[in-house]
Amino acid sequence: MYQVLSQSNIGAKLIKRGKVRDVYEADGYLLIVATDRISAFDVVLPNPIPYKGYVLNQISVFWFKFLSGVVKTHFITDDVNLFPEIFKKSYEQVVYRSMLVKKAKPLPVECIVRGYISGSAWKEYKKYGSVCGIKLPEGLRESDKLSEPIFTPSTKAETGHDENITFEKVVDLIGRELAEKVRDLSLRIYIEAEEYARKKGIIIADTKFEFGLDENGELILIDEVLTPDSSRFWPLSEYEPGKPQPSFDKQYVRDYLESINWDKKPPAPELPEEVIKKTRDKYLEAYRLLTGEDLLKKLKI
């Protein structure tokens, strides 16, 4: 029987409890568990979103497998039968919600790729005519498709908001060779994924990648990948530039919180049942469109 998982409790060493994911260590591996927690404006909300953890994990698993010929990743398996024994003991908490991954040293930058102009990029463009130091054509409308995707990195803030930075700042942080490699890989991954998703009825307007170095110093793709939490997913059938777009992510939650004039400081307000349900349905629909599967049938719920 399905249970909302707000916080996992596994008998292994807890490495990190993020806004959404819990990370454990055992036998030289990491286990990333996607809970049903949801955050908005950098604050974790009191109400979890049913099935959200399953959706995030299973979409990441899908993309890691899809991208296996494009980039090396930290993904090992999501088959609980292949997990270290200590994780198998928490089967109900980890099945379909988790993946076993290789350890890596994360790079100190968020690798953001934008194929459309929206969000913070739209605000920056209106003010300066550029994004992260990249000059863009005049006359762009909100949500317009760019002539080609752009790499717009940001800092990786432990607390507060990330800040957009120029490519040269990335060079300062990690060196030119590695900076060029993550830029080129980020753009290639985005182009491959965007082309696939568009055929399935989803526009990936922008997305965030994270990279790390494995124990051999090799660059690998880590963390989550191309989920509704790390990307802006728009329904292709409703795309209409010149305004904000409907989305498959937590925008519905953010819009509700904006409507009640919350000050965006903890504690966050409770979400109405209608907002929880509609947000849940958005996540499930994103999974169905991308993979062609009904997640609840897969989970036998």
From TrEMBL:
<comment type="pathway">
    <text>Purine metabolism; IMP biosynthesis via de novo pathway; 5-amino-1-(5-phospho-D-ribosyl)imidazole-4-carboxamide from 5-amino-1-(5-phospho-D-ribosyl)imidazole-4-carboxylate: step 1/2.</text>
</comment>
<dbReference type="GO" id="GO:0005524">
    <property type="term" value="F:ATP binding"/>
</dbReference>
<comment type="similarity">
    <text>Belongs to the SAICAR synthetase family.</text>
</comment>
<feature type="domain" description="SAICAR synthetase/ADE2 N-terminal">
    <location>
        <begin position="15"/>
        <end position="267"/>
    </location>
</feature>
<protein>
    <recommendedName>
        <fullName>Phosphoribosylaminoimidazole-succinocarboxamide synthase</fullName>
        <ecNumber>6.3.2.6</ecNumber>
    </recommendedName>
</protein>
<keyword id="KW-0658">Purine biosynthesis</keyword>
<dbReference type="InterPro" id="IPR018236">
    <property type="entry name" value="SAICAR_synthetase_CS"/>
</dbReference>
<keyword id="KW-0067">ATP-binding</keyword>
<dbReference type="InterPro" id="IPR028923">
    <property type="entry name" value="SAICAR_synt/ADE2_N"/>
</dbReference>
<dbReference type="GO" id="GO:0004639">
    <property type="term" value="F:phosphoribosylaminoimidazolesuccinocarboxamide synthase activity"/>
</dbReference>
<dbReference type="InterPro" id="IPR001636">
    <property type="entry name" value="SAICAR_synth"/>
</dbReference>
<keyword id="KW-0436">Ligase</keyword>
<keyword id="KW-0547">Nucleotide-binding</keyword>
<dbReference type="GO" id="GO:0005737">
    <property type="term" value="C:cytoplasm"/>
</dbReference>
<dbReference type="Pfam" id="PF01259">
    <property type="entry name" value="SAICAR_synt"/>
</dbReference>
<dbReference type="GO" id="GO:0006189">
    <property type="term" value="P:'de novo' IMP biosynthetic process"/>
</dbReference>
